[in-house]
C-alpha cells in the first residue's frame, strides 16, 4: 500500500484545472472512478475534464448520462490539455494500457499522479497513490470524498457503485470483505440504485452477444483434470455474429461456472491481429505473474495482456506458460 493521504489531499486541493484518464477499453471501474472523482473535484470548484484514449464502449454509455467522458479518438487534441495543472491516471499503472494518452502523460509527467489498485506498474510518474488490497479503484475514490468531506450525491455514488460491484463480480470475488458491503451501503444511502445499475450492466445483451457467448462456450476445452478451461474467439466469430468488440467483456468469467474449474483463460483475436488474453484464477497460480510474462498485469485472481498473433501461436505460448505455472506451483505446494 502506498497511500500518503496528506500528500494526495494537498495535491488535489492545490489543483485548479484537472484532467482524468484511464486505460484503453475502459470498464466500469475505470469510467466509474473517473466520473466519481470528477464530481468530487467539481464540488470543490475545480474545472475537470475526463479524456481517455478510446471512446466509451456503447454498452457502458449509460454510466455517463451527461456525456462528460471525452476521448482522443473523438477529436480531443493533446494540445487541448495544455492548460491542465494536474493529470490523474486512474485504475492503471501501465504505459501499454494508456494507448494514445501515454504521450500526453509523458509530456505532463511532472503534473501526473496515479491512483490505482493494481499490483504491476511502470514508471508513469513519481507520485503514486496505490492500495493493492483495495477491491476496486472506486473504493479509493470513495475514500477521497470522505477525507475531503465531500457528501456523496447520486451523481458520485452511482458510477462508484457500478465500479465496485463489477470489480468484485457483484460481490462474489474473494476480494469482497465486510467493508466492501459497508461502502456499497453508503452508495445506496446516496441513492445509487442496485437494481437499475444491474439492469444496465447485466441485462442489456444483444442477440449478437448471446450468439458470441454460444461460440465461446461451445469451443471451451478443459485440461489438468478439468481444473483449467480455455476458450478462443477469432475476429471472424465477432464479425459473423454481428457482435461488437465490447461484447467480449467478461466472457472469461462465464467459463468459471463449470464445476471444478480453478482457472479460466480466454484468447480474443483483435481486428489488428493482436491477441487479448485474460486470466482468471481461484487457484494457487497468480494470474498477474502469468500476465506479466506477456507484458501485462493485474491481480492474483484476474489479469490480462496483449500478445502478438497469430491466434493459434499465441494459444500455444499461453498454454505452455499456464502449464509451467500450474505444475511448478503444484510441486511447491
What distinguishing features does this structure have?
2 domains, 333 residues, Diaminopimelate Epimerase, Chain A, domain 1, inorganic pyrophosphatase (n-terminal core), six-stranded parallel beta sheet, alpha/beta, six-stranded mixed beta sheet
Tell me what the structure shows.
- The chain has helices at 5-14, 28-43, 101-107, 137-147, 154-167, 178-189, 194-202, 207-218, 235-241, 251-254, 287-292, 311-332; strands spanning 17-21, 47-52, 69-71, 86-90, 112-116, 128-130, 221-223, 228-233, 263-269, 275-281, 297-298, 302-307.
- The chain has 333 residues and is of the alpha/beta class.
- The chain folds into 2 domains: 5-201, Alpha-Beta Complex (inorganic pyrophosphatase (n-terminal core)), CATH 3.90.1640; 207-332, Diaminopimelate Epimerase, Chain A, domain 1 (Roll), CATH 3.10.310.30.
- Helix 2 runs parallel beside helix 4.
- The mean pLDDT is 93.
